[in-house]
Amino acid sequence: MTDLIIENIPLTKEWLAEIIEKKIGVKPKIGTSGILDNSELGYMSMIRKVQLHFDAEHEESHPNLPKHVVLKIACSSKGTGVLDSAGADMTETDHSANVELFMHNTECNYYKIFAKLTEKPLHLPVIYAAIKAEDKEAPVPVIVMEMFEDCKVYDIITGFNEEQLYKIVDEIVKLHIFSLTTEEWKTIVPDAFVLEMAGYFQTMVAGIGEKLAQQPGLELVSTYIKNTFATDPKFLQNINDEYLEERRISVLTHGDLWAPQILWDKNDDIAGIIDWQITHRGSPMEDFHHIMSTCTSVENRKNLTKPLLDYYFDKLSSGLEAKGVKMPWTREEIEEEYKYSFINGAALTIFANGFWANSPVLQTDGKPDPVRIGESFKRCKSYLEEVIQEHNMS
């Protein structure tokens, strides 16, 4: 019988047992591994759940021992195929490998910071190990993390309702309170490799946008590209530099906050937020934009944006005051920041729609679903119309 947890992946059961024992003080017996629900939506990693078994005496003396952990192993093969179909140029082997490495290492960096905290800033998984490509603790880059039991994710097309959107804003507020009252997260700064990947992301978005603009009803994507990428291929990096250089006040942004990253418990409260692979220093409105442009109906976005921003401002102000920190924005400045970050939000929305339309996200029974694709494109179109109007694009 093999001691490998997953066939052909050089991670042994003994290695995992020691990793878990180091974290919780009790050594489990490692059971079988299996496919995690919704793991088909993970494109830059292989994701597996692994059963844990503890002796009866350990279960009695250590309440709430974990039943499973999740292994997340850097692997971009599935994502590369989707990106190629969406219009991104992934013909260079180094490109896909570099994206994989960048995303895995980024997530490890931030999980290591979160793991040091006595009190977590928001609902985050317990991290048993976050091992980067260059680390020696494992033969492959891997994250070992808590599995949130008995949780669900919402389908992106069903979308979030009003109550759920307010709960998501609560989590965004917690992340921003952490950002504005601590400093260690700022020690993670882009190196030359990260900056190279940022430039490559811009190229990918432009390629995906050009193909997406060929879809009926999304011709206005061409207007956005003409006023952004065609004018300045580095415009996204220039925007990001404003936050990195503190010309605009920055916070820690998740960077890819959408439906599958938010886990909900049986009471419909948020149990955890996962997948911090493109986390970075950025606009306080970035994550809010991505949720509102992709994960709720057009009607909700139009009707709820202002009250949600009012709520965000009030909750952030009171949360910072409780910690003795002055709110750095007025309500009017939050509005200005929201409008300014439209242009960055549009790039991520274009990328997401092009990617999802060529992936299981918008499929039913393994085939593209015109109804699901149509609803996602409807949200994208409405959002881009507002971007183009707000930024006077023609």
UniProtKB/TrEMBL annotation:
**SUPFAM superfamilies of this UniProt entry?**
Protein kinase-like (PK-like) (SSF56112)
Q: Where are the transmembrane segments?
A: none
Q: Which Pfam families match?
A: DUF1679
Organism superkingdom: Eukaryota
* Start and end residues of each CHK kinase-like domain: 142-322
Q: What is this protein called?
A: CHK kinase-like domain-containing protein
Q: Which organism is it from?
A: Caenorhabditis elegans
